[in-house]
Amino acid sequence: MIMIIAYLDIVSILTSIFNRLLGLNLPDIFFNSFAFRAVFMALGAIILLIGGLIYKNTNNQ
């Protein structure tokens, strides 16, 4: 049996783990808010964009 885990489920699990590891004691609903997920996805997009630009400039020789 193949299980499919949604991206948002993985984000929820990771944020719950980081919340416990860092001792933030924030409610899990904070990490499930749209604003937090939008910021999290925007940071990921920026990292991918920077990586793509670096790759493009290094392979342009």
From TrEMBL:
The chain crosses the membrane at residues 5-22, 34-55. Keywords: Membrane, Transmembrane, Transmembrane helix. This is DUF378 domain-containing protein. It comes from Thomasclavelia spiroformis.
